[in-house]
Amino acid sequence: MTFQGDDYLLAGEAPVKEPARQAYYIAKLRRHARAFEEEHGRKPFGCVRTFGCQMNARDSEKFAGILREGGFILTEEAEADVVLMNTCTVRENAANRVFGRLGQLTGLKKKRPWMVVGICGCLAQEDGIADEIRTHYRVVNLVFGTHNLYKFAEYLDKCLSEHARVIEIEGDSKTIMEELPNERKYRFKAGVNIMFGCDNFCTYCIVPHVRGREKSRRPEDILDEVRRLAADGVTEVMLLGQNVNSYGKGLEEPITFAQLLRQVCEVEGIRRVRFMTSHPKDLSDELIQAMAECPKVCRQLHLPLQSGSSSLLKRMNRHYTKESYLALVERIRAAIPDISLSTDIIVGFPGETEEDFEETMDVVRRVRYDSAFTFLYSRRSGTPAADFPDQVSKEAAQPRFDRLLALVQEIAAEKNAARVGTVEEALVEEADAEREGYVTGRLSGNTMVHFPGDPAMIGTIVPVHLTESKGFYYMGEVASC
Ligand code: 5AD
Ligand code: SF4
Prior knowledge:
By secondary structure, the chain is of the alpha/beta class. It is 38% helix and 20% strand. It has a 6-stranded parallel sheet, sandwiched between helices. A 5-stranded mixed barrel has the order 15-16-17-19-18. It has a 3-stranded parallel sheet with strand order 7-10-11, sandwiched between helices. α10 (257-265) runs parallel beside α11 (285-293) and α14 runs parallel beside α15. The radius of gyration is 23 Å and the shape is globular.
């Protein structure tokens, strides 16, 4: 947009309707950016820091896009005039990391008093946190929650125009904003939200409390986005949602996730499709069949177990048992023998006994995951499990965690070693940060491989001979076809 275009846009009042309203505020940001440049002799710098999951990473791309369209140069925190921290609150240490960063930002703000420090996302939405920031963290001048992420430009304009502190966490999560600017981290792969929120209320989890009720995007909107991405050079998409298997609920025209997946695979130019996260209770045979039949669907499935004990699973409100989970894995492996399975496991959930923990170890031994994320249970206030009387002490949980991690790593290393000598396709993602003359690629099963190559290969899919396993990644060589 030209300056003259901005003048025209800004001559009237802010439109009431979206997305025109946000376009108006982005134009106002450009006006701030020009004024800043006149005063400081350089364009303003902006930085978005992401804590947490893939969905936060996706939202951050939108914030970065808004900043860039608003005339900011994207940079690192140390030199930024606007810093936005997109936060996570799933586990307590994620929240603590954010508060830790605030201390460092206080120092930076002394040097650049005009700095805007913003906090958004799940932590901001958690009960009581906005008030805590308001009273104890003066360094922060912008706070907004998960229900009004799309209004970032409007809030930032208010901070800059009125030198005001903006704290806005109310809002409904029903609005799904299409057409926001977007700054993709990679030019050849992209995350695509297919739904927001979660209705599952696992008893340990804060996500449904901070992200709100589940809401699916319309398939036309998703497919339009995928087509636009493909036209822009993207070859790999990751479909994102807290529970993609229940996609489609509440839409005018009923559609299942399996149907959506098939439609996404049909988009020309897209060569790889991934998705996450899958709740085992909703993973249908229809989806397994779609995965087996569509060669573009990556041979990777993330299937959070959380615990192998049926009684703990009940207390977690997970709606499956150890036996039904194992049966599901069997059906998946029968249909897609080369699938890589990964999982999430929580250790030390309230009431977990040694026997419960052994059930988890048993599932891990039987399923033999390719990789697993293991977490110590973190007590999140506001969730039912936080009030369960039989909390497990750190002293009891830590040795179990260590045993689980050792087992998970041992199995993952064995599984990776077994594929040495084979040739697999890798999407080249970047120049290897540690080895000169090497590039790093991602296999269909999601494991990384480093091999001699040129940065010109970035974004292409090449056959790689896996020559050596290093535990959770490979070394390789481009295979001649
Ligand atoms: N404590 C520990 N781990 C948790 N997770 C979610 N909530 C908690 C909690 N309170 C884990 C689950 C989930 C992953 C994203 O984070 O394993 O699948
Ligand atoms: Fe949290 Fe359970 Fe929803 Fe996942 S499915 S986001 S663990 S409540």
